[in-house]
Amino acid sequence: MTNPDNPQKENNPTNPAATEADGVGALPHGRPLQTDFNDGRDYPRLGSFSFRRGKLTDNQEAVWEKNWPQLGKVLSAELIDIDEWFGRSAPNGTIVEIGSGTGTSTAAMAPLEQDTNVVAVELYKAGHAKLLGSVVREGISNVRLIRGDGVEVLQRMFAPQSLTGVRIYFPDPWPKARHHKRRIIQSGTLHLIAERLMPGGILHVATDHADYAEWIDELVEVEPQLEYLGWPEDQSEIPVLTDRQIITKFEGKGLDKNHVIKEYLWRKK
Ligand SMILES: C[S@@+](CC[C@H](N)C(=O)[O-])C[C@H]1O[C@@H](n2cnc3c(N)ncnc32)[C@H](O)[C@@H]1O
């Protein structure tokens, strides 16, 4: 049965409350925060996702328990004081990466963008546990983590014009037509991202999925506050790092299948 107020509940037989132990970094019990944007734009409907994926090792659990309280937050209605969280006012501002997965590129890029704060947003605890492990092991000081739906995180936890960049690398392609409404790149998400970027801020999206690329191609001009830049050969004018440094887990899977990687950049006007 469809529950229009709570599509996640409808699609998600694995209630997180039933599968995750309470503790630091656990998603809250009950109905997840879901904004009714009601502005005529399209917003993704959160699809089903399993909270069982990947079990943390004892070492990862220990690292999580010790470090999450300082370095992580769970989606909430808290508007983040970015300077306080990072303990500085970063010269190059703050980038939010939505769907960081295991955070391989996040950790690889961070040392090259020391003057930038990077906030990795992911639903998947085991993915964030890997990134947290890298952050702690490698002494990375400019990365923080948020657990929750990236759309709600942007909507509730970041102020308008507070970001210099947003990254979405290899978002879930939801290949079946009846699942396209779950794709994160939609007119509403592009609008919300534009609202959160400061003028000159950059949105960078990459996909290896040909059908998703066609879907994005249709949307590149839909948000009037974003100037579509394509993927310029000369990126010296782009004020944020666009080189992932390392092939991400999902990029590698696509390349193994000979998929073509397509990259997109937009600039907030
Ligand atoms: C295909 S994977 C790509 C992961 C990583 N960027 C990479 O390239 O290896 C997509 C990731 O986005 C996460 N994800 C999906 N929907 C999300 C949402 N609404 N908010 C935050 N993360 C999301 C998934 O849990 C998954 O880890």
From TrEMBL:
Residues 1-39 are annotated as: Disordered. PROSITE patterns: SAM_MT_TRMB (PS51625). Substrate binds at K176, D208, T248, K249, F250, E251. It is an enzyme of class 2 (transferase). The keyword Cytoplasm does not apply. It catalyses: guanosine(46) in tRNA + S-adenosyl-L-methionine = N(7)-methylguanosine(46) in tRNA + S-adenosyl-L-homocysteine. The keyword Methyltransferase applies. GO terms for molecular function: tRNA (guanine(46)-N7)-methyltransferase activity. S-adenosyl-L-methionine binds at E97, E122, D149, D172. Keywords: Methyltransferase, S-adenosyl-L-methionine, Transferase, tRNA processing. Its EC number is 2.1.1.33. One of its GO terms (cellular component) is tRNA methyltransferase complex. Pfam families: Methyltransf_4. Residues 1-17 have a biased composition (Polar residues). HAMAP family: tRNA_methyltr_TrmB. Belongs to the class I-like SAM-binding methyltransferase superfamily. TrmB family. Catalyzes the formation of N(7)-methylguanine at position 46 (m7G46) in tRNA. This is tRNA (guanine-N(7)-)-methyltransferase. The lineage of its organism: Bacteria, Bacillati, Actinomycetota, Actinomycetes, Mycobacteriales. The gene is trmB.
